[in-house]
Design brief:
The protein is of the alpha/beta class and about 400 residues long. The protein folds into 2 domains: about 5-225 and about 395-410, Vaccinia Virus protein VP39 (Rossmann fold, 3-Layer(aba) Sandwich); about 235-390, DNA Methylase, Chain A, domain 2, CATH 3.90.120.10. Helices cover about 35% and strands about 15% of the residues. The strands form 2 sheets. Strands 3-2-1-4-5-7-6 form a 7-stranded mixed sheet, sandwiched between helices. Strands 8-9 form a two-stranded antiparallel sheet. Strand 1 (about 5-10), helix 1 (about 15-20) and strand 2 form a beta-alpha-beta unit.
Length: about 400
């Protein structure tokens, strides 16, 4: 089978790409407007390149802090440098983006683009953010049109469009209707599903909409995906990491015991004998007292602490009638609730279940809940990294989808 080429638009950390990369799809370009996320993509591409070249020690030297990022990037070919395009996708930027993609395609033995993947920013479609969206003028509500311009320019056989379930009902359902009609108008049949990450090995209850589209001249369909049945819990991804105090940073740490069966089965602990970026944010004493109450209530009663139940001396907000679940403990004995980008702002919604640690989850713990492998290294500030993780498609979900997509490509 020929090599399958794809581009990832609105790429974020390249998490949606991760499953496709594992199955040897070839990335022609990543387009992402966040500069730090672009560095994360480039570093991950360095990992894939060095792994294929049998030189992972160089990558491990970098994430261990033994060499600089510039030294790492000297080991990657120029094609990787040009494949990561740090740009907003807009009317003014498309001409230049298309030109770079065309140049990259011409360098390949197969210069056809087979697949486009990507998930436009979802704030406009999320239920939480709807009250402040100007549906007629906010450019975020029309990003599917920008997505479509890539389809019209490169005519890939297939595309994968990811977003939040709120896209179904946004603006009373009219935007999803327009989106489907638009894709059909430019020559693509589509089908869509809500997929829950927890059904594919991710220890997180995370629902996302996936639209799979295909050119009208080929036989394709939404891939059949087989759920993974297991009894693993969040404790399986926390127990081998060192305990942390609030604000403690372990840039490189040794596992305190052998990886759990979950980590081995799903290949999250996958090569190096160390982990990185076990970074906890600091908390003030008032928040820590509330955290302790929340952990005790959850672990003893399996009930959430409501803000109105917090002693008045610890309350910092006057509103005790709405948004009462401001403090939420991650379920160590089950799967986590959804990790979202808000984790970049504070940790109140992602409290570690171990009362002896009494803090919010670390960068590495959040990454594991999202099913990132331990050798996935994030670039940028702590705030930026949490945002990148919260916005990401869980790689294990990406892998399940990529397997289904590839199987159908093999039958074309």
């Amino acid at each position: 089978m020929k090599q399958l080429n794809y581009i990832d638009i609105f790429a974020g950390t390249s998490a949606l790409s991760e499953g496709f990369r594992q199955l040897k799809f070839n990335p022609v370009a990543y387009i992402e407007m966040d500069a730090e996320a672009c560095l994360t993509i480039k570093t991950r591409e360095a990992y894939h390149h060095l792994k294929e070249a049998g030189k992972l020690d160089t990558y491990y030297d970098y994430i261990s802090g033994n060499i600089t990022r510039d030294s790492l990037y000297k080991h990657i070919p120029s094609e990787i440098e040009t494949s990561v395009i740090n740009s907003e996708i807009s009317d003014s930027s498309l001409k230049n983006i298309f030109k770079i993609i065309e140049i990259n395609l011409k360098k390949l033995p197969n210069n056809e683009l087979d697949l486009i993947i990507g998930g436009p920013p979802c704030q406009a479609y999320s239920i939480i953010g709807r009250h402040c969206i100007d549906w007629e003028n906010d450019h975020r509500t029309k990003l599917y049109v920008q997505y479509g311009r890539f389809l019209k320019e490169f005519r890939p056989k297939v595309f994968v469009f990811e977003n939040v379930p709120g896209i179904y009902t946004a603006n009373n359902g009219s935007y999803f209707t327009h989106l489907k009609k638009y894709f059909r108008k430019i020559g693509y049949e589509t089908d869509d599903r809500i997929l829950n990450a927890k059904d594919f090995g991710v220890l997180q209850n995370r629902k996302r909409v996936f639209i799979v589209g295909w050119r009208k001249d080929i036989q394709f369909s939404f891939p059949e995906l087989t759920p993974i049945v297991h009894n693993y819990t969040v404790e399986d991804i926390l127990s081998d990491l060192s305990p942390l105090t609030p604000g403690q940073v372990i840039n490189k740490g040794r596992y305190r015991k052998l990886p759990s069966e979950y980590l081995r089965q799903f290949d999250l602990s996958n090569g190096a004998d160390f982990y990185t970026q076990h970074i906890s944010r600091p908390h003030n004493s008032n928040d820590l007292k509330i955290y302790r109450l929340a952990i005790e209530k959850w672990n003893k009663e399996r009930k959430r602490l409501r803000y109105s139940d917090i002693p008045e001396r610890l309350q910092t907000h006057k509103n005790t009638r709405s948004f009462l679940d401001r403090f939420k403990v991650v379920d160590g004995k089950g799967v986590s609730h959804t990790v979202v980008a808000h984790i970049a702002k504070d940790g109140h919604y992602y409290i570690h279940p171990d009362i002896h640690q009494c803090r919010s989850i670390s960068v590495r713990e959040a990454a594991r809940i999202q099913s990132f492998p331990d050798d996935f290294f994030f670039e940028g500030s702590r705030t930026s990294i949490f945002r990148q993780i919260g916005n990401a498609v869980p790689p294990l979900l990406s892998l399940a989808l990529a397997k289904g997509i590839k199987k159908q490509f093999e039958m074309l």
